[in-house]
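Handout for the seminar on molecular recognition.
Each group receives one record of this type.
Step one: identify the two inputs.
Step two: read the structure output and locate the region that could contact zinc ion.
Step three: write two sentences on what you found, then compare them with the reference statements printed after the record.
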Amino acid sequence: MNIENMPKIVLHLHLDGSLDIKLVEKWLKEDNVNMSLEDLKKQLQVSKDCRNLNEYLEKFSFPCSLLQTKEHLYEATYNLLLNLHNMGVIYAEIRFAPSKHIVGGLTYDEVVKSVIKGLNTAKKDVGIFGGIILCCMRDESKETNLKVVELAKKYLNDGVCGIDLAGAEALYPTANFEYIFDKARELKIPYTIHAGEADGINSINKAIEFKTKRIGHGVRAIDDINTMNLIKEKNILLEICLTSNLQTEAIKGKHPLEDLYNYGVNISINTDNDTVSGININEEYKKVLETTNLSIQDLIKCNINSIDYIFANDETKNKLKNILALSLDKC
Ligand SMILES: [Zn+2]
């Protein structure tokens, strides 16, 4: 068993941050835009030595500007899922913020339907399982965020599998967004919350108070034993993104994923943004093996454990568990 053919579960991956560079080249060609590969990479990817949140966030404006048509949204989703399938991913939840894709004139429904079409076509063509998470944004109004929650309800079990809260965590504290998760619970929509990335344990504690079962990043939990205990006690899973955390300086120095894992915190390994971070899931797994004492068996166990947290029905969960149990046997 090697990393490439190990079946993997991806839970934290942003669509706009994971655009295939070849696909973007194709789009630019179709629009008669001349841009060298080098310039294109500069627009889409952080530099190798990025240790700065601002540089990281700047890399989302160009891809977002390209994702303003039904075709591009469809193609981007389809292409991403195919790439994931080729890397051994058997289940992926792709997230994006519908409110950032309506400036070109699309309606919310058109945006979501285009992404779902990409998901369904990929499933039909290569058999990859997955779902779409709609992100509410910290910089959007309450009205817009509630609209996204309603949209998630409308397409739940029809491609959409849950919601998330994303955006500048330090500027807009998690505490301000209780209304999103109250509504989500009322409508029985599963959710995850970005917390403990750019902000500290208060943000994580709020996410826990909002009864989340999954936290995007959550790495600052390492700063407080009580928060770590609470995460364990409440059986919460942390969606860990090692490379991204180092690039945004959420973590300076050694990443705490190994300490969290050894302490008994449930973790899943993800890239956050394949293109912006300039990494793919297999490279991320290899980085974990190279920089920690975790073994390939540990990574398989993390994947098996993650299945209990995916936003899917029991039938899908059982299918995935069987595939992963077989791979553990082969080790
Ligand atoms: Zn994220």
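Reference statements: The longest strand covers residues 129-137. The chain has one domain: 8-329.
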